[in-house]
Amino acid sequence: MAKRYSPNGTPVVVQTGASIILEDAQGRILMQQRQDDGTWSYPGGRIEIDETVEEAARREVLEECGLQVGEMELLGVFSGPELNHVYPNGNEVCGIDIVYVSRDFTGSLSALDGEAKQMGFYSIDRLPQPISAMNAKQIRAYLARRAER
Questions:
Q1: Whether this model's pTM surpasses 0.70
Q2: Which of 25, 98, 127, 141 is most buried, judged by most C-beta within 10 A?
Q3: How far apart are CA 41 and CA 48, in angstroms?
Q4: Angle at CA 73, nearest 5°, toward 69 and 76?
Q5: pLDDT > 70: what percent of the chain?
Protein backbone atom coordinates (compact mmCIF):
# COMPACT_ATOMS: atom_id res chain seq x y z
CA MET A 1 0.00 0.00 0.00
CA ALA A 2 1.27 3.46 -0.86
CA LYS A 3 2.16 5.88 1.89
CA ARG A 4 -0.41 8.62 2.42
CA TYR A 5 0.43 12.18 3.39
CA SER A 6 -1.36 14.81 5.47
CA PRO A 7 -2.36 18.17 3.99
CA ASN A 8 0.85 19.63 5.46
CA GLY A 9 3.03 16.96 3.82
CA THR A 10 3.70 14.78 6.89
CA PRO A 11 2.87 11.07 6.70
CA VAL A 12 -0.55 10.00 7.98
CA VAL A 13 -0.04 7.94 11.13
CA VAL A 14 -2.20 5.36 12.88
CA GLN A 15 -3.18 6.63 16.31
CA THR A 16 -4.72 4.32 18.90
CA GLY A 17 -6.85 6.00 21.51
CA ALA A 18 -8.69 5.01 24.66
CA SER A 19 -11.93 6.69 25.68
CA ILE A 20 -14.74 6.46 28.21
CA ILE A 21 -18.37 7.41 27.82
CA LEU A 22 -19.39 8.40 31.34
CA GLU A 23 -23.02 8.16 32.48
CA ASP A 24 -24.24 10.03 35.54
CA ALA A 25 -27.00 8.86 37.91
CA GLN A 26 -29.64 10.51 35.68
CA GLY A 27 -28.44 8.59 32.60
CA ARG A 28 -26.87 11.66 30.99
CA ILE A 29 -23.46 11.37 29.31
CA LEU A 30 -20.40 13.57 29.67
CA MET A 31 -19.57 15.60 26.58
CA GLN A 32 -16.89 18.24 26.08
CA GLN A 33 -16.49 20.89 23.44
CA ARG A 34 -13.08 20.65 21.80
CA GLN A 35 -10.83 23.73 21.80
CA ASP A 36 -9.32 22.93 18.40
CA ASP A 37 -12.44 22.69 16.21
CA GLY A 38 -15.44 23.41 18.45
CA THR A 39 -17.06 20.00 17.98
CA TRP A 40 -18.33 17.87 20.87
CA SER A 41 -16.83 14.58 22.04
CA TYR A 42 -16.55 12.27 25.01
CA PRO A 43 -13.22 12.26 26.91
CA GLY A 44 -10.34 10.23 25.55
CA GLY A 45 -7.00 10.40 23.83
CA ARG A 46 -3.98 8.51 22.61
CA ILE A 47 -2.37 5.67 24.50
CA GLU A 48 1.15 6.44 25.70
CA ILE A 49 4.16 4.11 25.55
CA ASP A 50 3.97 1.22 28.07
CA GLU A 51 0.48 2.25 29.18
CA THR A 52 -2.41 -0.22 29.22
CA VAL A 53 -5.58 0.74 27.39
CA GLU A 54 -7.47 0.91 30.69
CA GLU A 55 -4.81 3.14 32.28
CA ALA A 56 -4.89 5.45 29.25
CA ALA A 57 -8.68 5.75 29.31
CA ARG A 58 -8.71 6.59 33.03
CA ARG A 59 -5.78 9.02 32.68
CA GLU A 60 -7.45 10.88 29.83
CA VAL A 61 -10.68 11.36 31.82
CA LEU A 62 -8.71 12.58 34.84
CA GLU A 63 -6.59 14.98 32.75
CA GLU A 64 -9.46 16.32 30.67
CA CYS A 65 -12.30 16.33 33.20
CA GLY A 66 -10.90 15.95 36.75
CA LEU A 67 -12.79 12.70 37.36
CA GLN A 68 -11.40 9.38 38.61
CA VAL A 69 -13.00 6.35 36.97
CA GLY A 70 -13.50 2.97 38.64
CA GLU A 71 -15.18 0.03 36.91
CA MET A 72 -15.54 0.17 33.14
CA GLU A 73 -17.26 -1.98 30.52
CA LEU A 74 -15.89 -2.29 26.98
CA LEU A 75 -18.24 -0.80 24.38
CA GLY A 76 -16.03 -1.73 21.44
CA VAL A 77 -13.03 -1.12 19.24
CA PHE A 78 -13.76 1.32 16.44
CA SER A 79 -11.81 2.05 13.26
CA GLY A 80 -12.31 3.07 9.66
CA PRO A 81 -12.09 6.20 7.55
CA GLU A 82 -14.75 8.01 9.59
CA LEU A 83 -12.30 8.05 12.52
CA ASN A 84 -9.59 9.81 10.50
CA HIS A 85 -8.92 13.37 11.59
CA VAL A 86 -6.94 16.33 10.28
CA TYR A 87 -5.78 18.56 13.13
CA PRO A 88 -5.62 22.36 12.70
CA ASN A 89 -1.83 22.10 12.16
CA GLY A 90 -2.45 19.88 9.10
CA ASN A 91 -1.36 16.58 10.67
CA GLU A 92 -3.70 13.72 9.80
CA VAL A 93 -4.24 10.57 11.84
CA CYS A 94 -5.98 7.32 11.05
CA GLY A 95 -7.80 6.65 14.32
CA ILE A 96 -8.51 3.50 16.25
CA ASP A 97 -10.65 4.15 19.35
CA ILE A 98 -11.08 1.64 22.17
CA VAL A 99 -14.17 2.84 24.01
CA TYR A 100 -15.45 1.97 27.47
CA VAL A 101 -18.63 2.93 29.30
CA SER A 102 -18.65 3.71 33.02
CA ARG A 103 -21.09 4.85 35.67
CA ASP A 104 -18.42 4.57 38.38
CA PHE A 105 -16.56 7.84 38.89
CA THR A 106 -15.71 10.37 41.58
CA GLY A 107 -14.38 13.91 41.70
CA SER A 108 -15.44 17.35 40.55
CA LEU A 109 -15.92 18.10 36.90
CA SER A 110 -13.21 20.52 35.74
CA ALA A 111 -11.24 21.14 32.56
CA LEU A 112 -7.70 20.52 33.82
CA ASP A 113 -5.66 20.31 30.63
CA GLY A 114 -7.28 23.09 28.62
CA GLU A 115 -8.41 20.82 25.77
CA ALA A 116 -12.09 21.61 26.34
CA LYS A 117 -13.93 24.91 25.97
CA GLN A 118 -16.78 23.59 28.10
CA MET A 119 -18.15 20.29 29.36
CA GLY A 120 -21.15 18.83 31.08
CA PHE A 121 -23.55 15.93 31.30
CA TYR A 122 -26.21 15.90 28.59
CA SER A 123 -29.39 13.91 28.04
CA ILE A 124 -29.02 11.44 25.18
CA ASP A 125 -31.93 13.08 23.38
CA ARG A 126 -30.31 16.53 23.69
CA LEU A 127 -26.63 15.94 22.92
CA PRO A 128 -24.78 19.13 21.97
CA GLN A 129 -23.97 19.58 18.30
CA PRO A 130 -21.99 19.14 16.20
CA ILE A 131 -20.62 15.80 17.40
CA SER A 132 -17.00 15.27 16.35
CA ALA A 133 -16.82 13.10 13.24
CA MET A 134 -14.17 11.06 15.10
CA ASN A 135 -16.78 10.12 17.74
CA ALA A 136 -20.06 9.84 15.79
CA LYS A 137 -19.74 6.11 15.01
CA GLN A 138 -19.02 5.30 18.65
CA ILE A 139 -21.90 7.45 19.94
CA ARG A 140 -24.27 5.63 17.57
CA ALA A 141 -23.03 2.26 18.88
CA TYR A 142 -23.43 3.44 22.48
CA LEU A 143 -27.00 4.65 21.84
CA ALA A 144 -27.90 1.37 20.10
CA ARG A 145 -26.53 -0.68 23.03
CA ARG A 146 -28.32 1.52 25.51
CA ALA A 147 -31.61 1.08 23.64
CA GLU A 148 -31.22 -2.70 24.09
CA ARG A 149 -31.12 -2.40 27.91
A1: yes
A2: 98
A3: 20
A4: 120
A5: 98
